Fold:
Amino acid sequence: MPVTVSMTVNGKEVSGEVEPRTLLVQFIRENLRLTGTHVGCDTSQCGACVVHINGTSVKSCTQLAVQCEGADVSTIESLATDGELHPMQEAFRQNHGLQCGFCTPGMVMSAVDLVKENPNPTEQEIREWLEGNICRCTGYHNIVKSIKAGAETMRG
Amino acid sequence: MTSEGIGASVRRKEDYRFLTGNGNYLDDISRSGQAYASFVRSPHAHAKIGGIDTSSAESAPGVIAVFTGQDLADDGIGPLICGWLIKSKDGEDHKAPAHPALAVDTVRYVGDAVAIVIADSLEQAKDGAEQVNVDYQELPAVALAGDAMQDGAPQVHDDAPGNVCYDWEIGEKDDTDAAFAAAAHVTTMEIVNNRLIPNAVEPRAAIGEYDPGSEGFTLYTTSQNPHVARLVLSAFNQVAPEHKLRVVAPDVGGGFGSKIFIYAEETVCLWASRKVNRPVKWTAARSESFQSDAHGRDHVTKAELALDADGKFTGLRVNTIANMGAYLSTFATCVPSYLYATLLAGQYTTPAIYCDVQAVFTHTTPVDAYRGAGRPEATFVIERLVEQAAKELGTDPAELRRKNMIAADAFPYQTPVIQQYDCGDYPRALDEALSRADYAGFAQRKADSESRGKKRGIGFSSYIEACGIAPSAAVGALGGGVGLWESGHLRFNPTGSVTIFTGSHAHGQGHETTFAQIVASRLGVPVDNVEVVHGDTDKVLFGMGTYGSRSAAVGGSALCKAADKIIDKGRKIAAHILEASEDDIEFADGNFTVAGTDKTMSIGEVAFAAYVPHNYPEDLEPGLNESAFYDPLNFSFPAGTHICEVEVDPDTGTVEIMNYTAIDDFGTVINPMIVEGQVHGGVAQGVGQALLEGCVYDGSGQLVTGSFMDYTMPRADSVPSIDVGMTEVPSPLNPLGVKGCGEAGAIAAPAATINAVVDALWDMGVRDVPMPATASNVWQTIKSAAQAAE
Structure:
């Protein structure tokens, strides 16, 4: 039986009809057609679907859409403003922190949340924070470098 | 070098769209009216199909159609093919049992697809698939390569007796046996190269679409080689005529080989789209990826190295059993033969080499090329043997390698196993690696570790690989069923910008940037004015795609050839307009100039004149649009030395990588930032194989490691930072001097890492450690060594 769900996504109030079993990531991708949030697994391991819910990074495959009734959700599409990359996005570009790009939205959303919690993370802290995000291309070397650089810019 | 020419770390053109969520991956595509597919897969490794009852699925809500293998057969849709013919020792062709896209009467691995359910929504398709009742009559299964040829082993195919696909050999057996008979020392090892699951983070996906108006098909697919997919789907699977089939591979989220192959799912979705007259979309759940993406490696090997009294290698004798899985995937047969045993000379002057390989069928997912494909297995055999020999002889492993390395002035170098290496300087890479890794300071660091109760080890891997598989005629002579050239097409637009159409396909490699750099530097135009188009058979002339680190060496060289044609034509146009002889026109930095004068015009002005040919040579076609096919003269041979340093906790078996140094010769480097990134990623996969990853089947053929919960992927906190350096020895065989960089890390790292772990534990009596060297495996190895000593 479809139910109606309403929330704020990237600053816009949205609502849609979903089955109760619909995951937040499905709602974002299929109902809202915001396809920057990716699905890389079915066990909440890969982190390609990380978004922010009420300002905190969450794997959007771990939430039902109906659980997010009234929530404030931000996806990768909200980070750049007027075509200008967010400092973390720019750091990934400058430091070759992405290759195929599939895990990248989740990595960036996760990294932005890390820096909010810990403005000056060490390499070890970055590596530990990223344990919920899988990348098969980069070996993480340049992702870690990107996040260090992004954190520095975000600190100002 | 300019700020954006060859050798410059130009930031990638593709990154903006990936970073802002604007990539266009397969699952992001929605076609009007699309239906969704779910596959019914075998839960058994081996079973007879007594019957398939689709009636309740067909009447389930939203279900449009259910098809089985019989429906495919009734429409004449051919089995999946393997495109490389291997001849056994007795001259017989390899055994190629039929591989139906949907199993008809027998299932042969967990995940073998039996039926497709197509519905209005994905949920309805999945619910419908649950309603398909298959009467499985379970049979015994064999999963391990080493068990497949045993007496009484369950048979996978009636037409492959003893489960043998082929029994192949290379090299001179008698010469090699003679070398062993005369050897002063022989090192012998049993080596298992663990089975891996590729796990590109984007799962495979496909949308088949039929247009009744044009009677044309379109397949959107996660492919590394869309033109090859089109060729196979039309010529062999008979799904659609080649000229009526468009294959689009958009942004693809990693491949590592697993997206080369032509799989059941895209074949069936394409065919079904016409049956249901709607686009049919399928996206693999990760659990399906684990079961249905072609796996990698899985060798069981006995290897022996013969040395003379001076420590020179005199012979190498190798026997390998290679697991093919239940069916032959698209290029499966060439991986443990021509991509493996032809590299067994490594970097060394070993004069006599013999290898025989038994490829066997088992009740497991098909095995095919995975990053490195045969070359990691070869490197692991050689570099484990060499390290072990050094230890047995009490020699410094670096020095034993140096003593046996092919000298820098010995190229081109003919090995005893077909390959002729183009160029290289192996001792230089070794020296550079020793210096960067501070080998001289290792003893001190080891002592420091000991003082903390830890065991420290250092391991080397002096690898070689063969990239840009070629030339076509030679590949054909060895059984390859395809040409291995690449196409490049350059179109100057009238306003002076350039569009590149390449048959290579990028799925993380950054071709949109590096190929733009190649063309921009050749034609003297800004990188920003060059756009790269790839991955669409309706746009790109033709292509063989991207695998085997071939894109720069083959695809890039095709672009150079096309660029040179552009310059030749531009010279004619400029000569006419500047009223000079063609011979007097010089081209440099994007300008055609009459030699010795200031009369000049830019290539952009020439392009404009070519499309607005008012003042133009009479006998010249308008337009500035050239294409080229490039067939390489030979493979290229990247090589280098990697050094891994580990610390092992002897109480827990935990291995920590302390330093990792990679010194590689990739020939000319186009974009160092991108090349270093390729090394990082490759090393992580190689370290993953060495320490973390291992595909496990149980005795009944169940896939035990079927999710990210069970199969250990390298994560940010489990792989090291990597020190990357390069010794550039340009290849003389292609116009760019490039060799290929995509696979080196995955080839070199397993041996370097395991050698380091064994070195750390050698004085505890440990002589070998299995991959993956998990804490559990290492701990048990330590305990076994201790028990053996008692």
In short: Chain B has 20 helices and 28 strands.
